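for the writeup, i need someone to sanity check this before i put it in the appendix. the sequnce is what the collaborator sent (i think, or maybe the updated version? ugh). structure was predicted straight from it, no edits. if anything looks off just tell me and ill rerun, i have time this weekend
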Amino acid sequence: MFVEKPWSQWTETEGKKVQYDCIAGNIITFALSSDEFYRVSQCSSTKEMWDILEVTHEGTIDVKRAKKHVLIQEYKLFKMLKGETIAYVHKIFTHIVNHLIGLGKIFDKKELNTKILKYLDRSWQPKVIAISHSKDLTTLTTTSLFGKLREHEQEMNRVNEEETGENKSKGLPSN
């Protein structure tokens, strides 16, 4: 921000605005790589720097809209595939949801929890029913839900390992 009058004629408010703009500009430039710095080094205000960085990294409104549509489609098509781990499903689901939230989409806990439970692999059906009947999906966080699912997955892996070990010791083929 430049004030078109001599320094001696600036009001206290104008002086503070320029000071804050300089501080903000310094914070931004110190946080940038050299390539990013050169992109904004000729800017005359922090706002101009911010606008250039925003368009560079987030895109224009049209790009954001297109990203949002793609992510909404990914959210709609989301489902666990056979052989995927809960940790992987958690990672993918969180990635989609966090990006949608960043683009302005609002979710409630029940919607997210229902989406997760509804689209787990069929082998999860007994656990899905148990969670659906025993937990209030409006208050359960997705992190807690994925924690419970990961706990169940670990228990199922342990049981499968025990069964496989017993079958090997009896000379039976493993499942």
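The first helix runs from residue 12 to 31. Residues 61-169 form one domain.
thx in advance!!
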